[in-house]
Write a structure and sequence with these properties.
The chain is 0% helix and 51% strand. By secondary structure, the chain is an all-beta fold.
């Protein structure tokens, strides 16, 4: 039987567009525990940072529990550009810059601290893609010409009480390196199903998972996995992305989630599949 195209998942459009960049050889990956978010707040798992020789800095913030940012969710990136906690906002560990992505309007804003308020800025070359997290690209021009900075990420959902903080305490530090390049943006995920006319009692398999990058190239993920649920029941895979559908699943809908990892980005997409 010929496999059928299961899904093609696209990221949200860029808010402000700049030129694509080459792949990084050594991005810095910083981990935050999964499952430590309070309530329904976006749960940060890893933040990957890279830069190129043109002064572009890319933050890939992977979020485990929201494929797309919920309307009541916000993500805050705080940057202490001079690495001096006594300057900038004392409430933000000395950060001089704050970038906010607001799920309710699908937009972002960049501000600079000017005692006693955050003052809006127009970023010179910023862009953001939102899918299973955020890919944020800024330039050192947007951050006061910094060459090394401290930063942290905070998320909220509905209220400040439902939040996640990465790292859990303190800040991370990143120093720009020479000869580097930016990690890629993953623009879409494609996968094929063994059949779209899926019957109870049959096997269901997802295969040929590929990713399309911001430079137009198509690549295989470094790692991929699948999960499947029918109602509240999670199906146990018999092999990678292979499931045996229970005979009791007739006329029910299965939700298949495909996850893929590539150079620091973790992307996910869910698709309903009707069982006959």
């Amino acid at each position: 039987m010929t496999p059928r195209l299961l899904l093609v998942a696209l990221t949200a459009g860029a808010l402000i567009v700049s030129a694509p960049a080459a792949l990084a050889d050594a991005p810095v990956s910083l981990a935050d525990p999964q499952g430590d978010a309070v309530g329904s707040a976006p749960d940060i798992t890893t933040t990957v940072v890279s830069n190129d020789d043109a002064g572009n800095i890319r933050f890939r913030i992977n979020i485990a529990n929201q494929i797309h940012l919920a309307r009541d969710s916000r993500v805050y990136l705080y940057v202490d550009a001079d690495r001096d906690p006594t300057t900038g906002s004392t409430a933000a560990q000395g950060a001089e810059y704050m970038l906010v992505v607001d799920g309710s309007v699908g937009q972002y804003s960049l501000s600079r601290w000017s005692e006693p308020l955050w003052q809006p800025l127009a970023p010179a070359s910023g862009r953001i893609y939102e899918w299973s997290g955020l890919t944020i690209t800024l330039n050192t021009v947007d951050l006061g010409g910094t060459t090394a900075f401290n930063f942290f990420v905070r998320t909220e959902s509905g209220s400040a009480g439902r939040a996640d903080l990465a790292p859990s305490t303190g800040t991370w530090t990143y120093a720009l390196g020479a000869g580097g390049a930016l990690t890629p943006e993953v623009r879409s995920l494609s996968a094929y199903a063994s059949s779209l006319a899926t019957r109870a009692g049959d096997r269901f398999q997802v295969s040929r998972i590929t990713l399309k990058l911001d430079d137009g190239s198509t690549v295989a993920p470094e790692r991929a996995s699948c999960s499947a649920k029918i109602g509240a029941s999670t199906l146990r895979p018999r092999a990678v992305c292979l499931f045996l559908l229970p005979r009791t699943a007739r006329r029910k809908t299965m939700i298949v989630t495909v996850s893929a990892v590539y150079r620091g980005s973790i992307v996910r997409m869910s698709q309903p599949v009707r069982i006959f």
